[in-house]
Each structure stands twice: as structure tokens, then as C-alpha cells.
Design a protein that fits this description.
Elements: H1 7-14, H2 23-32, H3 40-53, E1 58-66, E2 74-80, E3 87-91, H4 99-102, H5 105-110, E4 117-120, H6 132-139, E5 144-151, E6 157-164, H7 172-206, H8 208-215, E7 224-236, H9 239-245, H10 248-268, E8 272-277, E9 280-286, H11 292-316, E10 324-339, E11 344-349, H12 351-366, E12 370-373, H13 374-380, E13 387-392, E14 401-405, H14 408-414
Parallel strand pairs: 10-12
Antiparallel strand pairs: 1-2, 1-6, 2-3, 4-5, 5-6, 7-9, 7-10, 8-9, 10-11, 12-14, 13-14
Helix pairs in contact: 2-7, 7-8, 10-11
Length: about 425
């Protein structure tokens, strides 16, 4: 059977000098010709175009991966005939609770273990099928649909689907070609998915910049660089007492709300959170960005606003308002791998970190929620907007440090300490 090819597909394959004419040729390309492409969505686009060139009338195809991202259950990759790039959508964890999923082919394959689902959607056939997805496919002019599991190692099951718009749908030879390439597609997709999972996990637990360093090979103990940065350390007050008064789930909910309020402004303004330390966090704003100090100030302001809203909600729920302290300094830090032979932490150390930590602790004594060192204030050029609290001795330092804070109205507004 011949199918019409659009200009994109024709021009794309003319460069190969040969046209794939069978499943074996496509299979050979999957196994040998995809080594230099890191993204499975790009491989999937070319695979579907090659199938059409080979005479398999694929008009729409999808991949469904369960990626276990902190925010998303998975990813859906959608291709339609003529597309140069696939459409990539994230899928929330809530989807598995919806009626649409519970009555879908995805559940039948991923959860119930079905080995294949075939729908013939031509007019007059399978009209008893009432799922909205079937009607959506018919409205797109699709005539046939097949779905298979993509089985990865350790029982991880994903999904691939192909749909046709040919008047008679897929014939037996078409289905045989599609089935022939499934094991190779599973292998190729698993490699890319594991690469993406490694990147996602590293970004989730150590941050985007540190994850790039680690993926580039910075895994040796002592490996690191010197970075000039503004350092921010934040700590929640009376967390031990809060933990004793509240249930485990409630404490986790409170902590997550607090970290959202603090972390989102930091990341939005170019800061990098290196670690969460129980009820505290450590973040840096590298001075390679000329507005780093101003960005840090903006992040703190937005975080305080978010924490004030969170405290309003807490008071309405019968909880105490959250109290916190923030210390800010600037200087050179060593950024790299520190730890034991087998367990490493990618973090920053140095006098600048120590001073930020001492300033955070000093907030308890001076009753201000945020304290800045004079060094930071001078670099940020914000001295006229802050209050000079004088000099204070800090543990481990030979000389007192000049300390600045927001005005006293800020303390009253946020009830921080």
C-alpha cells in the first residue's frame, strides 16, 4: 500500500540516499543509528517518519513514560504526521485517580498487564466503544489504533501507541512491522529514560548547577572550584517544639509549605539551593551574575511576603506562626565534593559560609528576622535602605562584624522572631 508523504518527510529522507522499505531496516537503524541522539522524543519523531516512508500508514503515535518526577507522574510524547518535533506533555500524579484513566487503555496495559489493545475505529465498527478517547480519535479521522506495553528492566512498564488514518487501517503486515520494532524501541527508550531519570534525581537532590558538575565527572572527593558568591542561610525557629506538638504528617506539611515559601523566590531570582538541613537551607547567588546581590534581596523580600501569607493561613488553622532567621554574607567559597570515601556531599564551605551561619544565629539575639554583613551591604549598594545595628562579635572571628537589618517595621510586619 502506498501512502502520501508530505514535503517534510520527503526532504528529510532524501539525504539518506536510500529509503527504508522494511521493518528490518528500521530495526537496524534503531539499534545502530541512534547512538548520537540523547533525546527519545527526537528518535520517536524519526522512527514514525521512517515507518510512513516504509509504507506503514502511521498518522499519530504516542509514548507514555512513568518518570516519577517530584512534580509529575510521567511524560507523554505525541507525534502526528508532518511534525518535525514531538509534543511533550507532563502528566500529574492525580491522573490515575480520574475516571478517564480508570476506564482507559493506559490503565489496562500499565496497571492490569494487558499485552495488546486494538481498536478498529472505521465507521460502523466498534461503535459500542463509548470512551471519550475513541470519539476523539474518530474526530481526528483515525481509523485504526494499537497499543502495546514497553517493558523496561525490573518490571517497569510504559506504553506506546500507533494510530492510522488509512481507510482500511493497519493490515497484518503493518502490525507485524510495528511489533517487530518494539523490543528495540524498549531498549533505546530505556537508555534515554534512565539518563533523564539520573539528571532529574540529581537536579532534585543537589540542584541544577551541582547536577551538571556531577554529570560532567566531578565525582572525586576533594574535587571543586572556588566561587565568589552571596551566601544565604535560613533556619526555622522552635522546630523541635513544633515537632513534639504536631503529628508527623502535619509537620511534613508545615515544612513543605515553609520551604516552598523560601525556595521558590530564591530559585526564581537565580539562586541555587545547595541543601536542606532539617528545618534550614543553604543557598548561594554566584557573583558571576552582576545583579546577584540585588537578586538575593528581592528573593528575601518575596519569601517574607510568602511566609506572611503562610502564617495567616496557619493562624486560621489554629497553628502558631512560623518564625525564622536568615543570615547573609558574601565572599569566596569552595564549591565541590566533601565527605567520606563512599558518601559525598556537593556543597560549599569557607569563611563566607561560616559568617552567614553566625549571622543567622545572631537573629535570635537581636530580634531581627534577617541580618546582613557590612561586606554584603557595600557590595549590594543598599546601605541607605537598611538599618545599621552596629558591630557584634561572632564566634570564631577575631574582630566584631558590622551588621545591618531591615527596618523595625519589617519585624512588626513579619513577626519573624
Amino acid at each position: 500500500m502506498e501512502i502520501s508523504l508530505n514535503k517534510t518527510e520527503v526532504s528529510h529522507y532524501e539525504k539518506f540516499g536510500a529509503w527504508p522499505a522494511s521493518g528490518s531496516q528500521i530495526l537496524n537503524w534503531l539499534m545502530r543509528g541512534t547512538h548520537d541522539e540523547p533525546l527519545i522524543d527526537n528518535i520517536f519523531v524519526e522512527l514514525c517518519s521512517r515507518l510512513r516512508v516504509a509504507g506503514v500508514p502511521v498518522a499519530r503515535a504516542t509514548l507514555h513514560f512513568r518518570t516519577r518526577h517530584p512534580q509529575w507522574l510521567g511524560t507523554r510524547i505525541i507525534w502526528r504526521s508532518g511534525m518535525r518535533k514531538a509534543e511533550v506533555r507532563t502528566v500529574g500524579y492525580h491522573v490515575e485517580e480520574t475516571a478517564e484513566f480508570l476506564d482507559s487503555p493506559f490503565r489496562a496495559i500499565i496497571v492490569d498487564g494487558a499485552s495488546e489493545i486494538r481498536w478498529r475505529l472505521q465507521s460502523g465498527e466498534d461503535r459500542s466503544l463509548s470512551h471519550p478517547l475513541y470519539e476523539e480519535f474518530r474526530a481526528e479521522g483515525l481509523t485504526d489504533y494499537v497499543a502495546w506495553p514497553l517493558d523496561h528492566t525490573l518490571g517497569k512498564r510504559h506504553l506506546v501507541t500507533f494510530a492510522s488514518d488509512a481507510p482500511s487501517g493497519f493490515d497484518d503486515d503493518h502490525v507485524a512491522v510495528l511489533a517487530e520494532i518494539l523490543p528495540a524501541l524498549a531498549l533505546v527508550s530505556e537508555i534515554r529514560l534512565k539518563n533523564q531519570l539520573a539528571r532529574t534525581l540529581l537536579e532534585t537532590y543537589v540542584g541544577p548547577h551541582a547536577s551538571e558538575q556531577i554529570l560532567d565527572g566531578a565525582t572525586t572527593r576533594g574535587n571543586g572550584v572556588t566561587v565568589s558568591a552571596a551566601v544565604l542561610i535560613c533556619d526555622l525557629r522552635n522546630f523541635t517544639a513544633l515537632s513534639n506538638l504536631r503529628s508527623r504528617d502535619e509537620v511534613i506539611e508545615i515544612l513543605n509549605g515553609y520551604f516552598d515559601a523560601m525556595a521558590e523566590p530564591i530559585e526564581r531570582h537565580g539562586g541555587e539551593i545547595l541543601k536542606f538541613m532539617g528545618d534550614g537551607l543553604l543557598a548561594i547567588f554566584p557573583l558571576g551574575n552582576p545583579t546577584a546581590c540585588i537578586d538575593l534581596l528581592r528573593a528575601i523580600g518575596e519569601a517574607q511576603t510568602a511566609l506572611a501569607r503562610l502564617n495567616e493561613q496557619s493562624l486560621l488553622a489554629g497553628r502558631d506562626a512560623l518564625r525564622y532567621g536568615i543570615g547573609v554574607h558574601v565572599g569566596d567559597v569552595m564549591y565541590g565534593n566533601i565527605g567520606s570515601r563512599k558518601r559525598l556531599d556537593f556543597t560549599v564551605i569557607g569563611p563566607a559560609v561560616n559568617i552567614a551561619s553566625r549571622l543567622e544565629n545572631l537573629t535570635k539575639e537581636v530580634k531581627r528576622s534577617v541580618l546582613f554583613s557590612k561586606t554584603f551591604v557595600e557590595m549590594a549598594g543598599c546601605g541607605s535602605k537598611l538599618e545599621n545595628l552596629g558591630s557584634y562579635p561572632l564566634r570564631g572571628l577575631g574582630e566584631p562584624v558590622s551588621v545591618f537589618a531591615f527596618s523595625t517595621s519589617e519585624v512588626a510586619a513579619n513577626q519573624a522572631v
